[in-house]
Amino acid sequence: MENAIVIIPARGGSQRIPKKNIKSFLGKPIISYVIETALKSGICDEVMVSTDSEEIANIAKQYGANIPFMRDASLADGYTTTDAVIIDTINRYKAMGREFKYIICMYPTAPFVTVEHLKEAISLMDKHQAKEVKMLAEFSFPPQRGMIIDENGYAEYKYKEYANTRSQDLSPIYHDVGQLYVYDTKQFLESNGSIVDGVVPLLVEEKDVQDIDNEQDWIMAELKYKVLNNL
What Å distances lie between residue 213 and 11, 23, 130, 210, CA to CA? Predict the structure, then answer.
């Protein structure tokens, strides 16, 4: 059994940002960053891109990723989950005679994931015999102090019991940054992709991640990447 496969799910369709997965990010297709990071880490036996797009496949190959097969159109609509894509990919590799201890899922629009993140994630998997390692960041503002707008248009605290609680006295709450996941393959398949316990956090700072869902996010991500990498 091989140690780890990196699966980069990158379907061709994108509504909010056209051709999002291969759009130029500081002069290179954004998908190239995660491919290069995975290859540089030296911990992956296979770095592959799951896509239904010949254009994405060709660009991915240029940067060193493998495309042993194209994704079926039935798994390339806007409703297909990443879990379904991963399960299909692992089953197809198994049919080819290749099995992996760990699955590493990296999204194509995650240029902030580093070689160090990958190495730490695998180390945490080994150390804790974890089912999953998930990259998390602490909310910059405590959700317990969040507000809602009622039916009359007035703002009020969602959790009134915390209205007068100091922020520093509230327990930290973390959010999934949506960039990097490592799974124990056996556990992932047995749970059909729904691992709910045995999850070890890989903590990063909010400044080191950026969600990219629209053009404003894209601009912010490029600016942040320049600062973090002294470009």
Answer: 15, 13, 30, 10
- DSSP letters spanning 128-146: HT-SEEEEEEE-SS-GGG-
Rounded Cα–Cα distance for residues 105 and 139 (Å): 23
Residues pairing with 175 in the sheet: 137
Q: What number of other Cβ atoms are within 10 A of residue 60's Cβ?
A: 28
- Summarised one tens digit per residue, pLDDT across range 156-166 is 999 999 999 99
Helix/strand/coil for 205: coil
pLDDT tens per residue across span 107-146: 999 999 999 999 999 999 999 999 999 999 999 899 999 9
Instruction: Report which residue type is found at 226.
Output: K
Q: Are 63 and 32 in contact (CB under 8 A)?
A: yes
DSSP letter at 43 equals -
Backbone angles phi, psi at 10, to 5 degrees: -145, 85
**Residue 63 and residue 35 in contact, taking contact as beta carbons nearer than 8 Å:** yes
* Token couple for 196: 């709910």
What pTM, to 2 d.p., does this model score? Answer: 0.93
Determine the Cα–Cα distance for residues 87 and 226; give it in Å rounded to an integer. Answer: 35
Gyration radius from the chain CA atoms = 19
The 3-state DSSP class for residue 100 equals strand
